[in-house]
Each structure stands twice: as C-alpha cells, then as structure tokens.
UniProtKB/TrEMBL annotation:
It comes from Pseudomonas kribbensis. Residues 204-223 are annotated as: Disordered. It comes from the Bacteria. This is Paraquat-inducible membrane protein A. Keywords: Cell inner membrane, Cell membrane, Membrane, Transmembrane, Transmembrane helix. The chain crosses the membrane at residues 50-69, 97-123, 144-164, 176-193. GO terms for cellular component: plasma membrane. Its main location: membrane. Coiled coil: none annotated.
Amino acid sequence: MKRPPTASELNLCLCHSCGLACDMTDEPHQCPRCDAPLHRRKTNSLARTWAYMFAALAFYVPANLLPVMNTTLLGNGADSTIMSGVLEFWEHGAWDIALIIFIASIAVPGIKFIALTLLLVTVQRDSHWARRERSKLYRFVELIGYWSMLDVLVVALVAALVKFQALGDIEPRPGILFFGLVVVFTMLSAMSFDPRLIWDKAPAEETDETDEPRHSNEQVPGH
C-alpha cells in the first residue's frame, strides 16, 4: 500500500506556534494566521544538538562532584553533593525523597545523554534501523525533560522545612548552579534535534507485508 504524501511533497509547513499548515508556494516567512516565523526544518540541527549536549556533559561533572548545599543543624554544618544527599535521605528513612533526587539528578540526565547520542549517531550514519522506535525514543526524551528540575525543587522544599523548624539553616552551594545548567543545556539539546531527520532516507514507498497486493495467480481463501 502506497504511503500518504509528506508535508514537504505537498509544499506545506506546519506553524510551530498555532499549528496551521501553511502553503509554502510563495515562500512566506511568517504564518498568515499568527505571524510567527516559519521554518521548514530546524537549522543546523545536528551541530546545535551536539554542541548543547557537550556543554551539558561539561557541566554534569562539577554538578555531581561539587556540593549542592550546606546544612547546619544545631551548630554542626556539612556540605552535601547530590549523591551524598541521596544517601543521607535514605539513611534517615526518607527513601521517597532520596529516590526522587536520584532519578531526577543522576538517572534522567544519563538517559538523555545516551538517547541523544544514539539518535545523533544513527542519523549521521543514515541508519535505517528501527525508525519508529527511535521516533518514540525522541518523544520519551522530550517527556522526561519536563521533570529534570524535581530535585532542585526538593532541595528548596527541604531548605524551607529546616528554616521553618528553626533548628538550623541550609545554604546553596555551586553544585546546584552547575546542575541547573545541565538541565538547561540538555533541554536545549533535545529541542534542537529535528526528529524528521530520522525519516529523511526512508524509501519513497513503505509497504507493509500484510498490505502487499496479491498476484493474479494467488487464490483468495474461501474461493
């Protein structure tokens, strides 16, 4: 069965602001409905995605090695990195907060780095492997990106609770700044990647085996 035509074949461009399918025959620069700029593709998608991801990786190292907060309780102060904070919360029975911080601070950035690297390498190699699954992987990367700041919110919540109980004080440390930069640059990296590049080298016609036309000498079951 013949595949439906693509937007580029119909000379259409989708407005990223209002969703209008715009006719590109006269090469308009703005959407006729909302005046937003029109772009057929994300410019320099691969280069910008690589650049943002390498920047995020550079900030990821100090984000995990430097302390993110200093906690002072009853006159005793100590700096805590992300991992030491996870262990402290776990040892004090706050396993739910420890799990949130571990997933948001360590697991999510790691998954995004691996997923984006896989997408970039396969696109640059013009790979035909698992296009549908790679498209789903990109949507998954976009989805988890919205939850990357959870641990920063948890740190803010813990600081508020400590100050409210008037038993001590919490101060931010440079690590929290570097982690915020990791979040920003990984989100920019995901936003810069154009998932349509996955399908650019697809065959002109994609036929499902179950939809292949029958030959004249084949018998239809039941006849």
